[in-house]
């Protein structure tokens, strides 16, 4: 496993991170997290909303007893986790209460990276940043980050932090893959300039880039597109044009001696602003397979050939929201 600094901070993260959702049972979730540890993954990403807080509890149990300094735990705050009016958002009240809840469930004294899961337009940004800063000063959080914030929102946060002497954002967790390149237009130029690193979620485009979905064929049994999420894929992702172009990547992967998932992960990690690609899994074998993408180097020629194949189906519009903005309310094994 290779490691990278997260932005210009001193925090090192594994190139492949494990996304700790609850996609099946708590027992299977624990088995997958243990396999991630065995495969050399040290960076674990979760959120209080995943599995209605159960994902954090399972992860905390698995990581209890592991040398704490050798792992990096990232969790998030924003989504609703209770019935009350203050059980969601980025108010000081919710951030403080949510952080203490995450610490209890994760069975740890501190969170390595605490992230705002989305931007909250209903709360003054200064209030949010002061709450995060207080958690850092208390030693309960080491670094702060955001997820799916726009370039304008990140810029505003950096300006306020600079003016008030508050702890600075070191990361943005954003959807990024061969197919979804929205952050390349405005966000990545800003984060590169400001020393902020990216944690890429959905690097396999919700399973599309694994090669499991074939043109003219029904989605494989047990896959995400064969289940309740089929309507989301049907909005444009599972067209024959998209699947035919993705299928053209298979000979290229074979030429390099890698699998389709490994090619997709290596492509994401080719971007120097990406510190880690977050993967989920439904079997331990998938984790063992995906970690092999760490360290794979793609040449400029290979990257150009990939672009030539899939350019017509790449999403680049910065005005669009993430493909599935409600994903962080659900669990998924294919992100």
User: Pairing-aware structural class of the strands and helices?
Assistant: alpha/beta
CATH topology of the domain at 3-206 and 268-297: TIM Barrel
- SSE string, helix = H, strand = E? EEEHEHEHEHEHEHEHHHHEHH
**Strand count:** 10
Fourth-tier CATH superfamily name of the domain at 3-206 and 268-297: NADP-dependent oxidoreductase domain
Question: Main beta sheet, described?
Answer: 8 strands, parallel, barrel
CATH class of the domain at 3-206 and 268-297: Alpha Beta
Shape: globular
Low-confidence spans: 322-335
User: What is the correct CATH architecture of the domain at 3-206 and 268-297?
Assistant: Alpha-Beta Barrel
Fraction of residues in helix: 25-40%
Mean pLDDT: 91
**Which strand order spans the largest sheet, edge to edge or round the barrel?**
3-4-5-6-7-8-9-10
Radius of gyration, whole Å = 19 Å
Secondary structure tally, helices: 12
Taking the alpha carbons of the first and last residues, their distance comes to: 20 Å
């Amino acid at each position: 496993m290779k490691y990278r600094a997260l932005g210009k901070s001193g925090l090192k993260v594994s190139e492949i991170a494990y996304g700790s959702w609850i996609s099946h049972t708590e027992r299977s979730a624990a088995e997958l997290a243990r396999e991630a540890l065995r495969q050399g993954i040290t960076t674990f990403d979760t959120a209080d909303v995943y599995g209605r807080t159960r994902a954090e509890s399972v992860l905390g149990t698995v990581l209890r007893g592991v040398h704490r300094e050798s792992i990096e735990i990232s969790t998030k705050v924003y989504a609703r986790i209770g019935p009350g009016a203050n059980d969601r958002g980025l108010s000081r009240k919710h951030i403080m209460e949510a952080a203490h809840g995450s610490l209890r469930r994760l069975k740890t004294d501190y969170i390595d990276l605490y992230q705002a899961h989305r931007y909250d337009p209903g709360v003054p940004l200064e209030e949010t940043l002061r709450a995060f800063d207080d958690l850092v000063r208390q030693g309960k959080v080491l670094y702060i980050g955001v997820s799916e914030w726009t370039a304008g929102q990140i810029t505003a946060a950096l300006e306020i932090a600079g003016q008030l002497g508050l702890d600075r954002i070191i990361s943005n967790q954003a959807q990024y893959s061969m197919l979804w390149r929205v952050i390349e237009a405005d966000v990545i130029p800003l984060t590169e300039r400001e020393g902020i690193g990216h944690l890429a979620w959905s690097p396999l485009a919700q399973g599309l880039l694994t090669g499991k979905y074939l043109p003219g064929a029904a989605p494989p049994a047990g896959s995400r597109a064969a289940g309740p999420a089929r309507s989301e894929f049907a909005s444009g992702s599972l067209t024959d044009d998209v699947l035919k172009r993705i299928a053209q990547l298979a000979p290229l992967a074979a030429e390099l001696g890698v699998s389709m998932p490994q090619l997709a992960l290596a492509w994401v990690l080719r971007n120097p602003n990406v510190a880690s690609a977050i993967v989920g899994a439904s079997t331990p074998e998938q984790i063992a397979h995906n970690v092999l993408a760490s360290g794979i180097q793609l040449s400029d020629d290979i990257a150009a050939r990939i672009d030539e194949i899939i350019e017509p189906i790449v999403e680049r519009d910065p005005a669009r929201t993430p493909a599935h903005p409600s994903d962080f309310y659900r669990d998924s094994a294919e992100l």
